[in-house]
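ok new one. same drill as before - structure tokens go in, u give me an amino acid for every spot. 346 of them this time. try not to just spam alanines like last time pls lmao
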């Protein structure tokens, strides 16, 4: 799922997202609540109409931003008090208020307020936080049931599993969220600095408990390799800023590994970024031209690289889906991991 934090996927137009096959994107409750604000979005008829996006949108709760940005003031059973990073004004997010905001946004998939603890995190604090996230989830679930969906569309609600890197806490959170019977389930609080093998172990522990007949979403992950390993462990959905953020910084993903388009090795290379990629950039421009654009500071470089990376990510998960349906995911994944392994740029 391409990340459109503020109602836009950076450096990419909505028309282009549709053309490359993005079927759902993300918005961010925290950022959209602060700017442009709920009155503007409500007046436009919801986020879909405001940004002219005709496909599904998932909105995260903004909880991660509250805790990661230097705006946090207080957290307790009631919710979170924070100051706006824009103007210093004070705001409160409760589980109920977040659901109300996401109703106004018109999100197709809503995420409840949760606390994403850092890594490393003391087990005692992780336990207290995870238990509070579960209580918040129950409040959000109940409140969502009292509010009608907006703009004539279904609005589904996922639960978010927390518990840091502690197996007992992850198991308790997974079972607790399952008992609340959400429409789908997310695994949060991973890919925050812990070793990859720990991330995979916690993911597998959760997916063994979370119902397989409902979507299972690993939040904020990750590299192409992370996606393949997590799919093998039962994950259905991902979001990550990596395709667009790395693209804006000159790093592109290909079927044979990463390339840094700023490197001198590409200065006279007239091949496309990836000769098997169907994106507009690969059909139209050479590596040498894209490197020139980056070195010259041209905006077109950011657009080409972002579109290419999103095309690659969507191709990768599409191929994974086909391999699963055809019963050959294991061998296909092994070949892909070998192909994606780091190597010297050529």
């Amino acid at each position: 799922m391409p990340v459109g934090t503020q109602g836009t996927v950076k450096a990419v137009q909505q028309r282009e997202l549709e053309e490359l096959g993005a079927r759902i994107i993300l918005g961010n409750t925290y950022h959209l609540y602060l700017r442009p604000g709920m009155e503007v979005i409500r007046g436009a008829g919801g986020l879909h109409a405001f940004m002219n996006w005709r496909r599904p949108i998932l909105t995260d709760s903004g909880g991660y931003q509250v805790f990661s940005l230097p705006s946090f003031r207080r957290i307790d059973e009631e919710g979170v008090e924070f100051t706006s990073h824009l103007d210093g004004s004070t705001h409160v997010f409760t589980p109920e208020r977040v659901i109300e905001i996401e109703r106004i946004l018109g999100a197709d998939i809503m995420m409840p307020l949760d606390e994403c603890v850092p890594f490393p995190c003391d087990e005692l604090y992780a336990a207290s936080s995870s238990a509070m996230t579960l209580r918040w989830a129950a409040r959000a679930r109940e409140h969502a049931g009292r509010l009608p969906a907006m703009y004539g569309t279904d609005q589904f609600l996922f639960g978010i599993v927390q518990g840091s890197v502690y197996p007992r806490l992850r198991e308790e959170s997974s079972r607790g969220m399952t008992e609340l019977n959400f429409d789908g389930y997310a695994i949060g609080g991973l890919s925050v600095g812990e070793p990859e093998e720990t991330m995979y172990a916690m993911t597998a522990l959760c997916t063994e408990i979370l119902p397989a007949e409902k979507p299972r979403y690993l939040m904020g992950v990750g590299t192409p390799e992370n996606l393949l390993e997590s799919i093998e462990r039962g994950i259905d959905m991902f979001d990550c800023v990596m395709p667009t953020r790395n693209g804006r910084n000159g790093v592109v993903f290909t079927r044979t590994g990463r390339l840094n388009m700023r490197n001198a090795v590409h200065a006279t290379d007239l091949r496309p970024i990836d000769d098997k990629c169907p994106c507009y950039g690969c059909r139209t421009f050479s590596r040498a031209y894209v490197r020139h654009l980056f070195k010259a500071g041209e905006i077109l470089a950011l657009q080409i690289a972002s579109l290419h990376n999103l095309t690659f990510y969507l191709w990768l998960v599409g191929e994974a889906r086909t391999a699963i349906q055809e019963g050959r995911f294991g061998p296909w994944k092994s070949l892909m991991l070998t192909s994606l392994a780091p190597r010297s740029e050529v």
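The mean pLDDT is 96. and btw The chain has two domains: 14-240, 249-340.
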